[in-house]
Specification:
Organism: Aliibacillus thermotolerans
Mean pLDDT: 84
Structural class: alpha+beta
Strand order of the largest sheet: 1-2-8-11-10-9-7
Function: With LigD forms a non-homologous end joining (NHEJ) DNA repair enzyme, which repairs dsDNA breaks with reduced fidelity. Binds linear dsDNA with 5'- and 3'- overhangs but not closed circular dsDNA nor ssDNA. Recruits and stimulates the ligase activity of LigD.
CATH architecture of the domain at 5-23 and 86-169: Beta Barrel
Biased composition (Basic residues): 256-273
CATH class of the domain at 5-23 and 86-169: Mainly Beta
InterPro entries: DNA_bd_Ku70/Ku80, Prok_Ku, SPOC-like_C_dom_sf
Number of strands: 11
Largest sheet: 7 strands, mixed, barrel
Radius of gyration: 27 Å
Subunit structure: Homodimer. Interacts with LigD.
């Protein structure tokens, strides 16, 4: 597993040398833009629209755009000095909290933390303390020129760091248009909806969920690679005979009951055979 950051965890006077690894990976299928005529990958060049010149890396400076369209230019040396003032290569735990106090909207990205040389004992101590207290560490860390808020918790016997959005990065839900303030809910509809939820409630098993689009896309690419003709069976048009909310809920429950009955019948036949 690639090490993307080295530093330490600090809480109180305890210092734990660690290595950080990405806990997730992007599985999206990526494409290159090709010239239709010759299938050559297209290059994207930086060009100044005023000077009409190609711009190299050494010709670029950082600029912060103001509300009136002007720019405040920041020198690379100024940014490096500012970064040095807040970056000490440490995950500093500033508080310990219960994780259920954090709404999931705050979570951003996940990273595995493994002990570096000489850090195994202190690493195991922090891990056990978090498990025993059923708490997580709230920390700050500098990643890619941005100070991140993060939580440290135990996942599968490994310390996991999850970066958090700051409160001012969360958009106000009240700004979402057309959200009803208060709607009168018919009790019969509510009871039926709750029944449907109960029927569809199941233990979370992430392995059974797959990206169907990505699988089909990769199958299409593989078929083209092997020179096969790709055909798709036509699906029958859906019959739209559900006219209101109550009918939709009841239809869903009836459909789910049939599935459950078939599963029980199949299981019973297997048990008696």
């Amino acid at each position: 597993m690639h090490t993307m950051w080295k530093g330490s965890i600090q809480f109180g006077l305890v210092n734990i040398p660690i290595k950080m690894h990405a806990a997730t990976e992007d599985k999206d299928v990526s494409f290159r833009s090709l010239h239709h005529k010759c299938h050559t990958p297209i290059k994207y060049e930086k060009v100044c629209p005023v000077c009409e010149e190609k711009v190299g890396k050494d010709d670029l400076v950082k600029g912060y755009e103001t509300t009136n369209g002007d720019f405040i230019v920041l020198k690379e040396e100024e940014l490096k000095e500012l970064k040095r003032e807040v970056e000490d290569r440490a995950v500093e735990i500033i508080d310990f909290i219960h994780i259920d106090e954090i709404d999931p909207i705050y979570f951003n990205r996940s990273y595995y933390l493994g002990p570096n040389e000489g850090g195994k004992k202190a690493y195991a101590l922090l891990r056990e303390a978090l498990l025993e207290t059923k708490k997580v560490g709230l920390a700050k860390i500098m990643i890619r020129s941005k100070e991140q808020l993060a939580v440290l918790r135990v996942y599968n016997n490994t310390l996991l760091m999850e970066t958090l959005h700051y409160p001012d990065e969360i958009r106000n839900a009240k700004d979402v248009p057309n959200v009803p303030e208060k709607e009168k809910v018919v009790k019969k509809e509510l009871d039926t909806a709750k029944l449907l939820i109960d029927q569809l409630t199941t233990p979370f098993e992430p392995e059974k969920y797959v990206d169907e689009y990505r699988e089909k896309l990769l199958a299409l690419i593989e078929a083209k690679k092997e020179g096969k003709e790709v055909v798709s069976a036509k699906k029958p048009a859906k019959k739209d005979n559900v006219t209101d909310l109550m009918e939709a809920l009841q239809a869903s429950i009836d459909k789910n009951k049939k599935k459950t009955t078939r599963k029980k019948t199949t299981a019973k036949k297997k048990a008696t055979s």
